[in-house]
């Protein structure tokens, strides 16, 4: 009799634990990140153009707990008076330490004002992350710009993300 009670109790505890640990369903949410960036261009062996950029920055996002930092790397190819950036890898770190991974691409187009360029036809695709973003998907548009002489600029990611 005691064995039956113990088996029942053990089963109940395991079922309760499984129920509590079950993941909430993923839902689509608006995803926005706004921030400032510093790009460091230079040689990149991984790029067909042998030239790329590393981007560091910080900003805010209402979805992921307000403050975020980000790190990105891409390949840069001259295209007339503009530049194409491709094979971009974006890593966003939230205040809680969770990560969001994304790919991105687009163009830098001159504004006609000194060495200032703006992003054009720039998009991102969320490819996953950690924590509640482990299987995240989604994407959207990238806007902003950069002073090519200093590497300083602003960036906004705006789209939708499917996450828990």
TrEMBL record:
It comes from the Bacteria. Keywords: Signal. Residues 1-23 form the signal peptide. This is DUF3224 domain-containing protein. It comes from Massilia cellulosiltytica.
